């Protein structure tokens, strides 16, 4: 009987915590701004249209450009919750070292340490510290032309961070640090890894790279990754995904309307572990997705964004990419920064083999955003196909006339992310031997569960034992940690 009462008490506590759950103090170690309440899957409504990129979660619409960061944070929270996984913020320690053309990034968090590398090709032109284009896995753009501009090229070893080979979910340095069951798919893990590379560049002048002038690119599946990096890492000044298709520049809803000839959301989910398992629930319910990828592209605003496309490969659903390009163009134009976003689609070449006819488009964006060339013409929106956006079918919203000025993104990371050397959680003097014994009093009971409840309730202060609350060591304090206590609750009472 006593044991049953204990379980009942735990159930009531769980229900109480569920009612409190917001992305508040419990995710301060994640790239989600505090105070955002994300609806559950069951609360989402079917919407066959492209979701309104100007609408807040409370149903109001953007009126002032100064509020764009708030709306951006909400879109980011939705995307991390339902598609990418919750990206951890900066860990306890990041260090960088340079040997020749190799940068080694060493990350320590929660008692574990991992290292990964990036390979730098330095330009013969220009002056150090150099701006740089980071290749997600590799750079498939006009690398020699980029080097001639005085811009370095960095190849980030994303495969070692999170493997996308043979659908190896949970394999790689990221998962060695945060656990193989972490919510992040490969792309979110790569975004985390790119952030740690930038941390290392900021701390390592010997690398001869200017961390305030960085772009990111990648082709095909790595183009999906490049978009993820640029969307979530605000220190990236320029994002150039190349022929990335579904899960990248493509639109999930449009792809669904085209059938099996193109890559749809269920194929994107199943091909590799690029995304969180949470995306699975939308495989045959795409209209419940509370956003689409025109809004993922919009996460790059107010920074530079150039979409490189190829209409020759039906699988990539180029028309859906065009649709998204037009939608995100509306966002950039409404924000008063239309020349910071471009679209270039040219066929007649192999997949992710950039033709000479697109060199000028890429160079213009690099000159503007990495070399501060204010004369570079980035008013580029072109395709060698005659696509049109069917607004009556896909759009039931209007572009607002906004007031104010969109805030510029500085070199600093979002305020919700701790600094590189600051511990993620406040340390306690002693660590209990029994991980479920949060307060170290020798007993696993309701008091331990309440501490965890307090840790992720944004309306209360940081508890004394917060450092002990992440029981499953996945970088997030949430319901799963309470349930670990529940598993032992009856045994101790």
Structural overview:
The protein is of the alpha/beta class and 493 residues long. The chain folds into 2 domains: 81-394, Alpha/Beta hydrolase fold, catalytic domain (Rossmann fold); 443-492, Type 1 dockerin domain (Orthogonal Bundle), CATH 1.10.1330. It contains 15 helices and 10 strands. The protein has helices at 2-20, 68-84, 143-148, 158-161, 173-178, 186-203, 221-232, 252-258, 265-271, 293-298, 318-334, 359-370, 391-394, 446-455, 479-492; strands spanning 93-99, 102-109, 112-121, 130-136, 152-156, 209-219, 238-242, 304-309, 341-345, 381-383. A 10-stranded mixed sheet has the order 1-2-3-5-4-6-7-8-9-10, with helices on both faces. Strand 1 and strand 2 form a beta hairpin. The protein is globular, with a radius of gyration of 23 Å.
Structural class comes to alpha/beta
What is the number of beta strands? 10
CATH class of the largest domain: Alpha Beta
CATH topology of the largest domain: Rossmann fold
Distance between the termini: 11 Å
Corresponding CATH superfamily of the largest domain:
Alpha/Beta hydrolase fold, catalytic domain
> What is the tally of helical segments?
15
- What oligomeric arrangement do these chains adopt? single chain
Helical fraction: 25-40%
Low-confidence stretches at least 5 residues in length (pLDDT < 50)? 5-9, 11-28, 411-433, 458-462
Backbone shape: globular
- Write the H/E string, N to C: HHEEEEHEHHHEHEHHHEHEHEHHH
What characterizes the major β-sheet? 10 strands, mixed
How would you state the average pLDDT, rounded? Answer: 85
User: In the CATH classification, which architecture of the largest domain applies?
Assistant: 3-Layer(aba) Sandwich
Domain module tally: 2
Biggest β-sheet: strands ordered side by side in the sheet: 1-2-3-5-4-6-7-8-9-10
Q: Give the radius of gyration.
A: 23 Å
Q: Approximately how much beta-strand content do the residues carry?
A: 5-15%
């Amino acid at each position: 009987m006593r044991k049953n009462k204990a379980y009942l008490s735990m159930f009531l506590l769980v229900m109480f915590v569920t009612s409190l759950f917001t992305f508040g103090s419990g995710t301060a170690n994640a790239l989600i701004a505090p105070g955002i309440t994300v609806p559950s899957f069951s609360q989402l409504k079917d919407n066959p249209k492209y979701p309104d990129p100007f609408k807040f979660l409370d149903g109001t619409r953007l009126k002032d450009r100064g509020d764009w960061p708030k709306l951006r944070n909400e879109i980011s929270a939705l995307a991390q919750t339902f598609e990418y996984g919750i990206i951890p913020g900066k860990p306890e320690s990041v260090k960088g070292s340079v040997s020749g053309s190799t940068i080694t990034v060493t990350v320590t968090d929660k008692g574990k340490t991992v290292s990964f590398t990036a390979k730098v090709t330095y330009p013969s032109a220009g002056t150090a510290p150099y701006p740089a284009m980071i290749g997600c896995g590799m750079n498939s753009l006009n690398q020699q032309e980029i080097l001639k501009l005085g811009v370095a090229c960095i190849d980030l070893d994303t495969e070692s961070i999170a493997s996308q080979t043979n659908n190896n979910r949970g394999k790689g340095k990221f998962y060695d640090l945060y656990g193989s069951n972490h919510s992040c798919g490969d792309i979110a893990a790569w975004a985390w890894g790119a952030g740690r590379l930038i941390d290392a560049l900021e701390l390592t002048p010997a690398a001869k790279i200017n961390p305030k002038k960085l772009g990111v690119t990648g082709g095909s599946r790595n183009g999906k990754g490049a978009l993820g990096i640029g969307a979530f890492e605000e220190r990236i000044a320029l994002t150039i995904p190349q022929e990335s298709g579904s899960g990248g520049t493509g639109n999930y809803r449009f792809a669904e309307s085209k059938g099996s000839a193109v890559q749809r959301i269920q194929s994107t989910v199943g091909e590799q572990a690029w995304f969180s398992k949470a995306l699975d629930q939308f495989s045959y319910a795409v209209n419940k997705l509370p956003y689409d990828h025109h809004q993922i592209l919009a996460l790059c605003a107010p920074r530079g964004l150039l979409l490189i496309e190829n209409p020759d490969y039906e699988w990539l659903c180029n028309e859906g990419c065009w649709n998204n390009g037009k939608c995100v163009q509306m966002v950039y134009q409404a924000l008063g920064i239309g020349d910071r976003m471009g679209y270039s689609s040219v066929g007649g070449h192999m997949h992710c083999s950039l033709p000479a006819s697109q060199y000028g488009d890429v160079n213009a964006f690099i000159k503007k955003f990495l070399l501060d060339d204010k004369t570079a013409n980035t008013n580029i929106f072109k395709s060698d196909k005659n696509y049109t956006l069917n607004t009556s079918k896909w759009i039931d919203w209007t572009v607002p006339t906004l007031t104010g000025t969109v805030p510029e993104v500085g070199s600093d990371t979002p305020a919700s992310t701790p600094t590189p050397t600051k511990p993620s959680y406040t340390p306690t003097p002693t660590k209990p031997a029994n991980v479920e014994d949060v307060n170290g009093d020798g007993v696993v009971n309701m008091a331990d569960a309440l501490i965890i409840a307090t840790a992720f309730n944004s309306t209360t202060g940081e508890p004394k034992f917060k450092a002990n609350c992440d029981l499953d060591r996945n970088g997030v304090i949430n319901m799963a940690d309470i349930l670990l206590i529940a598993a032992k609750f009856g045994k101790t009472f």
